[in-house]
Amino acid sequence: MNINDIAKLAGVSPSTVSKVMNGRDSSISSETRSRVLEVARKYHYQPYSSVAPQASGRTFMLGALIQDMASDGKVVAGMLEASSPIGYSLLLEESCGTADGELRAMTALLSRRVDGIVWNPLPNGGPLARGELERSGVPALLLGNGPGGEFGIDFERIGYVATEALVEAGHTEVACIAGDGSSDALFVSGYRRCLFDHAIPQREDLVMMDAGDDLPSAMASRRFTAAVTSRYSFALRLCDLAKSLRYVLPQDLSLVSFFPGAPGEESLLACSVVTPPQRELGRAAAQRIIGMVEGNDSAGFPDLPYEVVSAETIAEPPSQARPRVISVGSINIDNYLSFDSLPRAGTSTSTSRSSVFPGGKCANEAVGISKLGLAAAAIGMVGDDADADVVFGALAEHGVD
Fold first, then answer.
1. What is the three-class DSSP state of 355?
2. DSSP string of 255-291?
3. CB 83 within 8 A of CB 101
4. Between 69-83 and 278-294, two packed helices, what is the crossing angle to 10 degrees?
């Protein structure tokens, strides 16, 4: 930040900033003085006269300007793993989701004379932070959705890997549900490239944007046997639709989604996912920025590992799946009372021990069929009370449609 930038932000003239910063401000009001000093502190401004000539050597410090630790924490961990063993320290700043915070973070890193910066810029970030970086001449690596010149997560590769997992399971009718963002477009591109590589005809009716109005009818008519989604929220909607249609995943529908979290959280997820290898990205970013600093940079998009986390919602297409057996008949609730002794004539017996179990010939057969490894479907009548919820829950637990 130069004196003109500080003056503009404080709403005063450059000469006023100079007077305040050099202690010649007796003619300036306390309110103006406080405002100038606040802006100067906020953006780490130092007057030219107080800055010592910068040494020509390196500081062996790298800067990481991230959006927040919640989303970029594993990237930072990967950077530390790659930089610390070879003698580089890492200074961390967060933009906290605002252009002003991004500018303050950038000036803080530059004031510490870092050798290079790895920066995850905000989509709506202002030009001031970028201007400060360009004026400094400090090498920087911008994280992004690549591979168009930026360094980051390869969403095209994610779309390809998600689709290929379904193709390898035997699916040829795979839907792609995506949004309208740049990362979504790359995801769709990977989906299309996978189908092309496996000689599967591409159908435009199976590419649906934003999980729109066409999705329920496409599912109800079984237009596709599997789906990939570029956003986890779309996968959750697909799961809700499947539940409303009494579809069971993955017997009736296989599903793989992109998920921005990290491996280890799969037990909480509704479907199989491809997660970004954030720690590996951090290591690659640190290695790349150190190469830029030391003059041996090897440009190129990082070759990171992408794989499907768990295969719980990936199965063969229904037409190739295990035989299906349908059981038709009674479905009911059995109520059991436990007594120490049976009542005798003329007496009564009481108990506080009771049990409730779903039963009926149809339900019992369907659960038994499922336990034998076949696909089971039950046709029967239940009510709309709490007992019905018990029945549906028990049948779903055993994979009965």
1. strand
2. EEEE-SS-TT-GGG-SSEEE---HHHHHHHHHHHHHH
3. no
4. 50
pLDDT cut 90: percent of the chain above it: 40
Burial 43-60 (b: 16+ CB within 10 A, else e): bbbeeeeeeeeeeeeeee
pLDDT of residue 322: 64
**pLDDT at site 324:** 80
Q: Record the tokens describing residue 203, joined without a space.
A: 């159908």
Mean pLDDT, the chain, whole residue set: 85
What pLDDT does 234 receive? 93
Condensed to tens digits (0 to 9), the pLDDT of residues 101-131 reads 899 899 999 988 898 999 988 877 668 888 8
Contact 148, 285 (CB under 8 A): no
Q: Which residue type, as a one-letter code, is found at position 191? A: Y
- Alpha-carbon distance values, 149 to 31, 146, 153 (Å): 47, 6, 12
Grouping H, G, I as helix, E, B as strand and the rest as coil, residue 144 is strand
122 vs 295: CA distance, rounded Å: 28
For tokens 């400090």, name the residue.
138
Weakest-pLDDT range from 85-94, 200-209, 214-223: 214-223
Q: Which two tokens stand for residue 156?
A: 């095209």
CA distance 54 to 142: 25
- For residues 293 and 379, the model is more confident at 379
Q: Strands 272-274 and 308-309: what pairing? A: antiparallel
Helix (H) or strand (E) holding 29: none
C-alpha–C-alpha distance, residues 146 and 185, integer Å: 12
Closest among 273, 284, 378, 396 to 326, alpha carbons compared: 378
